[in-house]
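TASK: fixed-backbone design
INPUT:
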C-alpha cells in the first residue's frame, strides 16, 4: 500500500467518515463498503493518469480492516484477462505507453464508492445516463454532494483524467469540476470520434488546478458496446500527445521497448 492510498484511507475514514456520515446514511447503496482507488507503484514516475468510471460491481476488491475495499489484488490478478473487460481495456490503452504492466503507472477510481447488488437499479429502473452499478441517489450523494472523486483527485494530482461516463455527465448537465480554477474547452461536448462504425462522444477540456496549469480531461462514453481494440487505440493516441518520456529513455529505446512488449503480449 503506497502513500497515496494511505492518504485516501485517511480521507475516507477521518475526514469524510465514509460510509457512516449523514449523506451516506441516506444513500441507498446496498453494499456500503467504499472501494479505494488503485494507484500503481510507479504512478509518480510518468504521466499521472487517472481513469474514472461511474461505478463498480459489488464485491470488487478485498475487505480491509477499516471495512473498505482494496482493489489491488483484483487489478493485479485480472490485468489483461479478457473476462475482466474493464481491466482488459485499460491494458490495451496503456501497453503502448508503458508496456504490459501498465497498471503500475496509472490510477483508477469511480464516481461512486459503494455498489448496488441490483446492478444500479432503484425502483425497478437503472439510473438514467447508463451508470452501471450506481443508483440515482448514489450519484447525488457520493459524486454531487460529497464530491469524493474530486477529493481523491486533489490527493493524486493527476496530469490527465479520463472519465468513462459521458452519458451520466450529460444527464447531470455537465457539472463543473471542483478542483478547476479555470477551464478551457478543447473539444466541445457535441464533438464525436469514429470507433469502427459507431460514434464516440469526445468532450475534451484543459483545466488549471492547484497542482498544474494544464490538466487534460477527457469525458467519453462507457466502453461497453464499442470495439475495445479501436476504442483503446483512440484513448491511447490521445494520451500519447502529451506523454512524458522517462529521462533516461531515448526514442530508439522506446521503440525497442514497445516492440518487445508486443512480442511478449
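OUTPUT:
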Amino acid at each position: 500500500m503506497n502513500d497515496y492510498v494511505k492518504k485516501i484511507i485517511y480521507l475516507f475514514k477521518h475526514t469524510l467518515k465514509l460510509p457512516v456520515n449523514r449523506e451516506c446514511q441516506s444513500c441507498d447503496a446496498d453494499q456500503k463498503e467504499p472501494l479505494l482507488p488503485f494507484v500503481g507503484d510507479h504512478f509518480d514516475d510518468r504521466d499521472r493518469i487517472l481513469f474514472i468510471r461511474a461505478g463498480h460491481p459489488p464485491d470488487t476488491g478485498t475487505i480491509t480492516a477499516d471495512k473498505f475495499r482494496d482493489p489491488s489484488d483484483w487489478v493485479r490478478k485480472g490485468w489483461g484477462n479478457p473476462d475482466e473487460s474493464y481491466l482488459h481495456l485499460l491494458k490495451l490503452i496503456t501497453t503502448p505507453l508503458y508496456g504490459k504492466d501498465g497498471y503500475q503507472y496509472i490510477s483508477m477510481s469511480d464516481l461512486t464508492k459503494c455498489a448496488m447488488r441490483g446492478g444500479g437499479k432503484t425502483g425497478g429502473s437503472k439510473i438514467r445516463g447508463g451508470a452501471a452499478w450506481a443508483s440515482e441517489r448514489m450519484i447525488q450523494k457520493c459524486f454531487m454532494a460529497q464530491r469524493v472523486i474530486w477529493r481523491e483527485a486533489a490527493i493524486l494530482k493527476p496530469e490527465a483524467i479520463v472519465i468513462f461516463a459521458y452519458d451520466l455527465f450529460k444527464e447531470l448537465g455537465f457539472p463543473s469540476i471542483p478542483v478547476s480554477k479555470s477551464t478551457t474547452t478543447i473539444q466541445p461536448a457535441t464533438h464525436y470520434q469514429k470507433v469502427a462504425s459507431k460514434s464516440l462522444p469526445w468532450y475534451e477540456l484543459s483545466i488549471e488546478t492547484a497542482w498544474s496549469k494544464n490538466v487534460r480531461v477527457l469525458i467519453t462514453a462507457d466502453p461497453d458496446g464499442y470495439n475495445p481494440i479501436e476504442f483503446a487505440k483512440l484513448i491511447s493516441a490521445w494520451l500519447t500527445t502529451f506523454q512524458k518520456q522517462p529521462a533516461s529513455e531515448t526514442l530508439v529505446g522506446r521503440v525497442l521497448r514497445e516492440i518487445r512488449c508486443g512480442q511478449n503480449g
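COMMENT: The longest strand covers residues 198-208.
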